[in-house]
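HOLO CASE FILE
Compound: zinc ion
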Amino acid sequence: MTLNCWRCHRGSAADEPACAWCGVWLVALDPARVPAPVRSLLAPARRWGISDDVVRVDAVDDASPFELDGLVEAVDGVDVDQVDAWLCGPEGDAADPTNEYVAVSALMMAAELARLRLDPC
Ligand SMILES: [Zn+2]
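Model generated. Tokens follow.
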């Protein structure tokens, strides 16, 4: 049983939480599992919170400046201290972190890289 990716349309095993090809999340990310200040990040995290470092860097490198702007703006729209407090809190020590935790931490890395790509120093 395979599931077609909403982004690249290629098939992944139906029990995989993320696309085997492009890394986007295939499962829904549950707002009830993150603190309120983090909730607005779940939509961009589904797209950019790619857990595999290589796939994430490729996704950012392949993105248009418009997409990179959207990614950076999504992260700029939240209180990063509150996001960091959650990422560095008890959930960060969990042996089996939630999909939401993995996605949002990867999103923050993707946004940092997007910032560098938009404005190289
Ligand atoms: Zn895909």
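CASE NOTES: Residues 30-118 form one domain. The mean pLDDT is 95.
CLOSED: yes
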